[in-house]
């Protein structure tokens, strides 16, 4: 029954337990395909001879790759530099730390301030709907967003949230978008049944202590600290249930780079996917590569964060389009994407195959 006294239909369509937390079991290391189609068929890195085995560069000038150094889930990016994977693929790459929101990062790619970048699907889909000249070439991993409830406020499951206040660091954040989707899958209205309130990420815990919010939705590494707070419970995250094999972060390539130097875009995508699989194979090495960007966290803690993600999820081709179409449908359900948008056509328009 809702707050107006009306009976609410049961719509628990999300195939995850009400409380879903903790590290995902790690499966066997993914194979590294040696075929041109391996990138599509198996989600593995392409090691095709025309690019990987060339000594000469496939781009005359260094490519500028944008990322957000505050996101531990992108640990494969610094690992790629440590392993010289860009050079292996015939590229010189300049890493640009973009401290703004990831939709601004997408705009930087579209306007030529960067050649490519890595960012979050649930931040990028809306501006891509509006026509940014950027194509998605691959997914990089799943996981990194978490929803915590305050035990003192009686918030231990998704169904405890009606009438409560959820704190976020950004009212257009991927975390707000994702957990709004989760609420709808439990038959709740994210715009009416809960209130969303914005605080700086490092003050969300204090807002809980003051009783100003009753739950926190945010991303690693900052939200990770609440896993150790006995006053909080991790309600769910974005590697639970049907989202366990869904990518949350993407590779975006500038449209003009694809038109002017498709081989460079292909090599960059392959290098990033190879780095992602290297990270999955050795999470400690990935954590150590990222550690200089998160000096407040020991390597062991960064590794634990990475272990709770899904770093073996690197969809491309049809699987990438399928996952982005699912996200588009879900974002339509929470009024982020226009309901008139054809999800399948949209996913096809914003992606590119680089096999």
TrEMBL record:
- What is an example of a Pfam family matching this protein? NMT1_2
Q: Which Gene3D superfamilies match?
A: Periplasmic binding protein-like II
* Entry keywords, A to Z: Plasmid
Q: Could you tell me what this protein is called? A: ABC transporter substrate-binding protein
| Biological classification of the source | Bacteria, Pseudomonadati, Pseudomonadota, Alphaproteobacteria, Rhodospirillales
């Amino acid at each position: 029954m809702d707050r107006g006294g009306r009976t609410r239909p049961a719509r628990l369509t999300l195939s995850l337990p009400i409380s879903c937390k903790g590290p995902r079991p790690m499966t066997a290391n993914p194979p590294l395909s040696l075929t041109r189609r391996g990138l599509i068929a198996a989600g593995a890195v392409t090691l095709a001879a025309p690019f990987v085995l060339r000594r000469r560069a496939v781009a005359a000038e260094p490519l500028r790759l944008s990322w957000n150094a505050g996101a531990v889930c992108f640990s494969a990016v610094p690992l790629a530099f440590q392993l010289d994977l860009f050079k292996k693929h015939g590229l010189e790459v300049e890493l640009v730390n973009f401290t703004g929101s990831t939709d601004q990062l997408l705009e930087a790619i579209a306007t030529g301030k960067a050649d490519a970048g890595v960012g979050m699907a649930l931040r990028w889909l809306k501006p891509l709907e509006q026509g940014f000249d950027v194509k998605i070439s691959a997914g990089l991993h799943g996981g990194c967003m978490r929803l915590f409830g305050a035990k003192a406020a009686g918030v231990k499951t998704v169904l405890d949230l009606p009438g409560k206040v959820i704190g976020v660091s950004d009212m257009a954040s991927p975390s707000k978008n994702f957990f709004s989707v989760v609420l709808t899958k439990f038959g709740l209205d994210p715009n009416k049944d809960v209130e969303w309130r914005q605080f700086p990420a490092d003050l969300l815990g204090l807002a809980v202590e003051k009783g100003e919010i009753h739950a926190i939705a945010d991303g690693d590494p900052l939200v990770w600290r609440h896993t150790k707070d006995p006053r909080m419970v991790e309600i769910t995250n974005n590697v639970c249930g049907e989202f366990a094999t869904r990518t949350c972060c993407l590779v975006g390539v500038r449209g003009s780079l694809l038109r002017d130097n498709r081989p460079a875009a292909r090599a960059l995508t392959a290098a990033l996917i190879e780095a992602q699989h290297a990270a999955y194979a050795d999470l400690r090495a990935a954590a150590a590569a990222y550690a200089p960007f998160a000096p407040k966290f020991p390597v062991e803690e960064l590794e634990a964060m990475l272990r709770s993600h899904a770093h073996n999820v690197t969809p491309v081709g049809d699987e990438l389009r399928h996952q982005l179409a699912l996200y588009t449908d879900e974002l339509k359900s929470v009024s982020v994407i226009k309901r008139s948008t054809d999800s399948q056509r949209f996913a096809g328009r914003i992606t590119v195959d680089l096999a």
